[in-house]
């Protein structure tokens, strides 16, 4: 009871911690314990629609920021122009999924028997409902995704006929586009479904899509880098990540644990990043979830976004080839400066929103410290982590000199034998399906309209702000 007597002016950091743990407990108690995710959502959607309707009615004219000329030319950085329910990115603290930080998710979300990392199924449940799921709910999701995993034969044929020199991300995006033959939303739309029911069919597509992407991704891997045979069937008694690693052809339980962590932390990074925004934008035209996700994948395949994980490994390997396996700090520094002077970016460093080390980097570093502390490439990553930020700061223009998620992931994958760097962004894409599909279901549930911001020409802009 004494907790409730604390006055706001006297709330200390330790009070805040107690209150935040209390709110976690209260949220867990009030969470629906049904294992039927659609039924849980069916209760939440009307309440959320009402809450937002009232908010818009009362505060629709309130201002949330200003737009400057610099923002318009500067990639819309800092413009608050989107609503994304699933996660929020704090520049200093990093991502919070429905209010929970990565360490909190690692603690709270259900794990596989004997495992230590969260199951991505649990993260998806959290993203789409706002509730931390229990073990039964997560198990039900693993089973449901396994049961929805089959691919239509035309997609298998298409995958098997791609040339092996086609980048895995291009294969991925093409196959996801072709999967739209299965879209329940597209069929319902052409049959005249009422708009109040959009979210329900988008939910079906989202669940199918999440179930199918590991099969598509594993087929790409086996076709491109192995003999193309034996991806095997999805096992409904296994979790989503365990099925994926088995289809990829990896049998190390530690690799599967890495994959559970990897697929959890790459899932969502609020709404404005290129892949999430692309999915949201294309989905706003009522393109079905497959077409929308393919658009997101095409954005993710850019070197300034998801392809950076491939670029980082190439960069580290290039450095090792030039300087040896364990180069001196001075040599590494010189190599970084050469990169910058030749007009290239240092991949894996910097971020449009973050201003501190990415917690997704930190948790991968912790995984490495636990499982591969003496790996030479991990040591090089640690060395680069020490040397790059001061160099980037010295350039005087980089706003965030700290490492992002992509600075670390490839090193972990290499250690477990996944040396094919061109494949790394596909893993990112499989994970990103969780966040963007949860978001898309809510986009339709909340009736977001077609996205169409206003643009101006430079002449018009000059006239408006400078009168000439
Ligand atoms: N290396 C070299 N230069 C960098 C840099 C880096 N890692 N990060 C930023 N800069 C440069 C920018 O290119 C820009 O230069 P110009 O003014 O000459 O155009 C300047 O510093 C200012 O950029 P910024 O405001 O700090 O960063 P942005 O918001 O424009 O860009 C990002 C963010 C991520 C594209 C950029 O930091 C970058 O290119 N990083 C390397 C690629 C990378 O790791 N991307 C992955 C990000 C995470 C993800 O999406 O997966």
Report the span from N to C terminus. Answer: 65 Å
Q: Which class do the helix and strand fractions yield? A: mainly alpha
State mean pLDDT (0 to 100 scale): 94
SSE string: HHHEEEHHHHHHHHHHHHHHHHHH
Fraction in beta strands: under 5%
Helix amount, in percent?
Answer: 55-70%
Number of helices: 21
How would a textbook summarize the main sheet? 3 strands, antiparallel
Q: Just give the CATH class of the domain at 149-468.
A: Mainly Alpha
CATH architecture annotation of the domain at 149-468: Orthogonal Bundle
What bound compounds does this protein have?
carboxymethyldethia coenzyme *A
Overall shape = globular
CATH superfamily of the domain at 149-468: Citrate Synthase, domain 1
| Beta-strand segment tally | 3
In brief:
The chain contains 21 helices and three strands.
Provide structural commentary.
With 468 residues, the chain is mainly alpha-helical. It has a domain at 149-468: Orthogonal Bundle (Citrate Synthase, domain 1), CATH 1.10.580. 59% of the residues lie in helices and 2% in strands. It has 21 helices and three strands. It has a three-stranded antiparallel sheet. A hairpin with a 3-residue loop joins β1 and β2 (94-97). α6 crosses α10 (198-225) and α9 crosses α10 (198-225). The chain is globular and about 65 Å long. Mean pLDDT is 94; it is low at 1-9.
Lay out the secondary structure.
Elements: H1 13-30, H2 37-59, H3 69-73, E1 87-90, E2 94-97, E3 100-101, H4 102-108, H5 120-129, H6 135-147, H7 153-160, H8 168-178, H9 184-190, H10 198-225, H11 240-248, H12 253-265, H13 274-284, H14 289-300, H15 308-323, H16 329-341, H17 359-371, H18 376-395, H19 409-415, H20 424-445, H21 458-466
Helix pairs in contact: 5-12, 5-20, 6-10, 8-10, 8-14, 9-10, 10-11, 10-20, 12-17, 12-20, 13-14, 13-20, 14-20, 16-18
The structure holds carboxymethyldethia coenzyme *A.
Carboxymethyldethia coenzyme *A (CMX) is lined by residues 273, 304-306, 308, 340, 345-352, 392, 397-400, 404-406.
């Amino acid at each position: 009871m004494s907790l409730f007597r604390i006055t706001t002016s006297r709330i200390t950091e330790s009070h805040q911690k107690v209150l935040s743990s209390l709110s976690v407990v209260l949220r867990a108690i009030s969470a629906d314990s049904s294992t039927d995710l659609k039924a849980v959502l069916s209760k939440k959607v009307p309440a959320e629609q009402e809450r937002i309707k009232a908010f818009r009615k009362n505060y629709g004219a309130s201002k949330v920021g200003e737009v400057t000329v610099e923002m318009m030319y500067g990639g819309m950085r800092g413009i608050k122009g989107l609503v994304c329910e699933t996660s929020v990115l704090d520049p200093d603290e990093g991502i919070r999924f429905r209010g929970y930080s990565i360490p909190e998710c690692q603690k709270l979300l259900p794990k596989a028997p004997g495992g230590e990392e969260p199951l991505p199924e649990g993260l998806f449940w959290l993203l789409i409902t706002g509730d931390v799921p229990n073990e039964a709910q997560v198990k039900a999701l693993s089973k449901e995704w396994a049961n929805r995993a089959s691919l239509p034969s035309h997609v298998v044929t298409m995958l098997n006929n791609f040339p092996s020199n086609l980048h895995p991300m291009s294969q991925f995006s093409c196959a996801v586009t072709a999967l739209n033959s299965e879209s329940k939303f597209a069929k319902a739309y052409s049959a005249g479904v009422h708009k109040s029911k959009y979210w329900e069919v988008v939910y079906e597509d989202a669940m199918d899509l999440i179930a199918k992407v590991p099969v598509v991704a594993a087929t790409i891997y086996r076709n491109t880098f192995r003999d193309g045979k034996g991806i095997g069937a999805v096992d409904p008694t296994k979790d989503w990540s365990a099925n994926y690693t088995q289809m990829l052809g990896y049998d190390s339980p530690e690799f599967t644990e890495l994959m559970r962590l990897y697929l959890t932390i790459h899932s969502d990074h609020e709404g404005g990043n290129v892949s999430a925004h692309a999915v949201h934008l294309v989905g706003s035209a009522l393109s079905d979830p497959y077409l929308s996700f393919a658009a997101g994948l095409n954005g993710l395949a850019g070197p300034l976004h998801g392809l950076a994980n491939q670029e980082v490994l190439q960069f580290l390997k290039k450095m090792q080839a030039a300087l040896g396996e364990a180069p001196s700090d001075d040599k590494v520094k010189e190599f970084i400066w050469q990169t910058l002077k030749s007009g290239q970016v240092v991949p894996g460093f910097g971020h449009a929103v973050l201003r501190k080390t990415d917690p997704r980097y930190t948790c991968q570093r912790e995984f490495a410290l636990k499982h591969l502390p003496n790996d030479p490439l991990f040591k090089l990553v640690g060395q680069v982590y020490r040397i790059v930020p001061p160099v980037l700061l010295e350039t005087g223009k980089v706003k965030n000199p700290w490492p992002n998620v992509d600075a670390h992931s490839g090193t972990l994958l290499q250690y477990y034998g996944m040396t094919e760097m061109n494949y790394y962004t596909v893993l990112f894409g499989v994970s990103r399906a969780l966040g963007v599909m949860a978001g898309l279901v809510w986009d339709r549930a909340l009736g977001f309209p077609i996205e169409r911001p206003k643009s101006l020409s430079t002449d018009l802009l000059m006239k408006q702000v400078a009168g000439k």
